[in-house]
Amino acid sequence: MCGIVGYIGKGQAAPFLLDGLNKLEYRGYDSAGIAVYDGNNIRVEKTVGRLAALQEKVAGNMPQGSLGIGHTRWATHGRPSDRNAHPHTDCSGDFVIVHNGIIENYLSLKETLIEKGHIFKSETDTEVVVHLLEEVYNGDFESSVREVLRQIEGSYALVFMSKKHPDRLICTKQDNPLVIGLGNGENFIASDIPAIIARTRKTYIVADGELAIVKGDSITVKDRAGNVIDKEIFEVTWNAEAAEKGGYEHFMLKEIHEQPKAVRDTISPRLSKDGSSIVMDELKWDASFLNNIHKVTIVACGTAYNAGLVGKYYIEKLVRIPVEIDIASEFRYRDPIVDDHTLMLVLSQSGETSDTLAALKEAKRLGAKTLAITNVVGSSIAREAAQVLYTWAGPEIAVASTKAYTTQLILLFMLSLYMAGIKGAQSKERIAELIAALEKVPGEISETLEDVEPIKTFAKQYGFNEDVFYIGRSLDYHVSIEGALKLKEISYIHAEAYAAGELKHGTLALIVKGVPVIALATQTDVYEKTLSNIKEVKARDAVVIGIAAKGDTELEKYVDHVIKVPATDTLLIPVLTVVPLQLLAYYAAITRGADVDKPRNLAKSVTVE
Fold first, then answer.
1. pTM greater than 0.90
2. Is 344 within a domain?
3. How many CB atoms lie within 10 A of CB 436?
4. Cα distance between residue 240 and residue 371, in whole Å
5. Residues contacting residue 111 through CB under 8 Å, at least 6 positions apart
6. Is residue 608 part of a domain?
7. Cβ of 336: how many Cβ atoms within 10 Å?
8. pLDDT per residue as tens digits for the range 122-148
9. Which of 265, 333, 340, 544 is most buried, judged by most C-beta within 10 A?
10. What is the CATH number of the domain that holds 551?
11. pLDDT of 423-457, one tens digit each?
């Protein structure tokens, strides 16, 4: 997820671009850049690091001109660096673009363009777009952009600028946000409303497939066929702070609602065109490599560790390789049995978690094959591991992790299917069945987010309890651990998760009248046993909130309240059941007046032991 801005009009472009990027820095902060047309040439200034580094670079020598675009980057292809920062230019310097998203077919396009003599300066997927524009340019800016869009595949918000056509910017989007601000003799383009709210409250919200020709005194929006669209003006009524959060009260709630897109972005580039297999060009493993792996060890901390618990189940169930999982802070101190037949899988949202990085280094010293799953390109863990898979969840601002967890689950599931396909551990029919279910998950998360009123009610009703218990079996138990952690992190309620079958081995002593118990019951192979455990806590007068799949009419007979999620394969339902648990924690924190985005004593990235 990156931030993009554009300006055309009667004023100076650079001040708006820098101010707009400052408002969008929450969308990405590993590099930034601007490009301004000065009347003769396009001047590009960009640098790695936070926006302050770019501001310092241009201080006293600000680019002059009334046409420009800018970008603040969250890396997906190519580590953070000056050369990978946007904007990107073609060979001639006539064209420049900024991009938010992922160009899925960039490698094949890049190979073709290199054969035709194009020289690339970066490692990014984005740069292929501007070289492709140079290649197909026919004198007509708009039709040339349409040809580019015909050839690229993926998700994007794109802004195109050309010194051959200094009277306009062209922008378009597919699956990534884009807004146009309507000014007086000037117009603005941005990823999100915060960038433009200080200049105008009149906007066009660009829809997928629309293409806008933005001039200083006019805006024309067309569909892909070139037909003019009569756009309705959207009047922004939010204040600046609310706009930065997309209208949500907190970043955590915004990030919960970003999960459908984050999951889609993680899935889509890794599916074969016919949808029958998982493609992981980052790995290129073969059967001989996997047959030499006798054990997988997963190491992580906090929420990433909880994702690893689900990952252990996926790998053992689908790939049939034994898996150990360790808390990273414990791994180095137990003399672990790791050798060159071990695949060490480390999980970290930030890629900077100190304990996880130390565990990774120790595993390498012992000869293990290493693979990192992280969200941050060029992070320490990404650089240290032999191979890396990125979740592409985009920046996560709230301390309590939400979309990082769900995208980690998705990537662990896809990795397991990828490994199972290579080893022949699952039939092609079963893999195709699971992929079909996987493709529906983003929509099912959206469905889960549609009705949160019951969850708000439960949070208000039980939010002042000092103890809450979570129970489940199999994958439900692993998800309940994450649910309990979320509640503890942001509401400060004492919450514990237990394997439901363990209740009778001591925990029942804590179940008293009125204590809330969150019971997950989605795993069909242990469903009857879970019902039995629920009856045990109800017999002690607990208040039970059940989580079930739609179509389940049995659970509601034994619980006080029930929350339903879409029915899907039991392997994938953890990605859905965690969403109401995230929301329950969020609204419980609101009920208690806690600081949701910045809970006490916690930091987003733990970079010390």
1. no
2. yes
3. 12
4. 41
5. none
6. no
7. 20
8. 999 999 999 999 999 999 999 999 999
9. 265
10. 3.40.50.10490
11. 999 999 999 999 999 999 999 999 999 989 999 99
